[in-house]
Amino acid sequence: MTGGAAAALTGLLFVAMSLHAKTIMENKFYRNRAIGTLTSLTSQLLLSGAVLIPGQPLWLLGAEVEATALFFLAVTVRAILTRGPESGSVPMPWTRRVVELVGGWTWNVLFNAAGVSLLVHAGGGLYLFAADMFLMFAWNIYVAWVLITEVSEAG
């Protein structure tokens, strides 16, 4: 179910972004939002498939989840450290900035916790992973909506 939803949402987002491709590609901030969202949804699709591999040891799934989680942790840290006028950042109210920091960190922390939990066979494993998949979907929908509204207002 998760893989199908990720594939459908990725396709819809791709179409929506293609309608504003010029504006998105001209602004590094928009471009990074678009790439981040598409990459996150694609990882959800791939990890959903990884869960279904017959006979795969739980520790190996944990390694796959954790490697992906560490990648997104690095992407998030990079996005925070490089945010500024030179990145094409758009002005946003402090409330939205807080929502974005809390939301982005919440799913990242849970993602890493799920990967570690699966690796060491303790602490909730697949339940944490399932909860994180839900949060990642919610987060990606939020970011996609914000991106499209920002681009629409800019263009």
What can you see in these coordinates?
The radius of gyration is 16 Å and the shape is globular. The mean pLDDT is 84. It contains 6 helices and no strands. Helix 3 runs antiparallel to helix 6 (125-154). With 155 residues, it is mainly α. The chain has helices spanning 2-18, 21-26, 28-51, 58-81, 94-120, 125-154. The chain has one domain (2-154). The longest helix has 30 residues, at 125-154.
Q: How many extended strands?
A: 0
The arrangement of helices and strands along the chain is: HHHHHH
* Shape estimate: globular
How large is the count of helical segments?
Answer: 6
Cα Rg: 16 Å
Low-confidence stretches: none
The helical percent reads: over 70%
Sheet bearing the most strands, described? none
Main structural class:
mainly alpha
**CA distance, first residue to last residue:** 36 Å
Number of domains: 1
Sheet-strand content, in percent, reads under 5%
Mean pLDDT: 84
Question: What tags apply to this protein structure?
Answer:
155 residues; 83% helix; 6 helices; mainly alpha
Show the helix and strand layout:
Blueprint (H helix, E strand, L loop, with lengths): L1 H17 L2 H6 L1 H24 L6 H24 L12 H27 L4 H30 L1
Give me a quick take on this structure.
The protein is an all-alpha fold and 155 residues long. It contains six helices and no strands. Helix 1 (2-18) packs antiparallel against helix 3, helix 1 runs parallel beside helix 6 (125-154) and helix 4 runs antiparallel to helix 5 (94-120).
